[in-house]
Amino acid sequence: MLKIDNLHAEIDGKTILNGLTLEVPAGEVHAIMGPNGAGKSTLSYVLGGRPGYEVTQGSVEFNGQDLLDLEPHERAAAGLFLGFQYPVEIPGVSNLQFLREALNSQRKARGQEALTGGEFLKLAKDKAGLLKLDPEMLKRHVNVGFSGGEKKRAEMVQMGILDPKFAVLDETDSGLDIDALRVVGEGINAIMRDPAKGVLLITHYQRLLEVVKPDKVSILSQGRIVRTGGPELAIELESEGYDAVMADA
């Protein structure tokens, strides 16, 4: 589903990704862990098409398409979702307005009919309930005045509404308390655990993985994958730290 081959990328002339190779087939949740500055967020930005990140070498294939040849909105329409470590605030735009426009824009790009107002409201309420987010919060401006946990729940509601084929989630557990962490983790499972979907889950900590239970775990260091294993690799990292584990890589 997602195939990254020898990917090199830089920002402001500084190389961040340095020959990263990774493949995530359909039906797999693949966790990426690594120390600060390893290139985890850069990887998510490159996949999402954020301006300023220049790919200098390598390729990324998504469902048979050249992902790097697509504009960000085309990547979204193709089924790629990017969850941010720090979701942005959009004053003056309600969540409902934002999400309805986003969903119907993607449906139009796929040749599907737009949802009516009633159909969309039902879908939004269903997904908000799944993430235990008060539906009234969807009437508020996007992320304005939201706590860290509320922002992450709202972003997972967005993912549920857009129903992507593949999700790249950049430190979704950042800023979550124990209860919110479980709700968000269970939401990821409910929305994305599907034989036809895939997830690249970037995290620092093993605690989210206790809920989501990835199929594979990879360590990213100095811009490339240095080790891949099963869920037990995250437990090893938690107990021994990056230096000890990467010394064996």
TrEMBL record:
SUPFAM superfamilies: P-loop containing nucleoside triphosphate hydrolases. One of its GO terms (molecular function) is ATP hydrolysis activity. It holds the Pfam family ABC_tran. CDD domains: ABC_FeS_Assembly. Keywords: ATP-binding, Nucleotide-binding. Residues 2-247 form the ABC transporter domain. Belongs to the ABC transporter superfamily. Ycf16 family. This is Fe-S cluster assembly ATPase SufC. It comes from Erythrobacter aureus. The lineage of its organism: Bacteria, Pseudomonadati, Pseudomonadota, Alphaproteobacteria, Sphingomonadales.
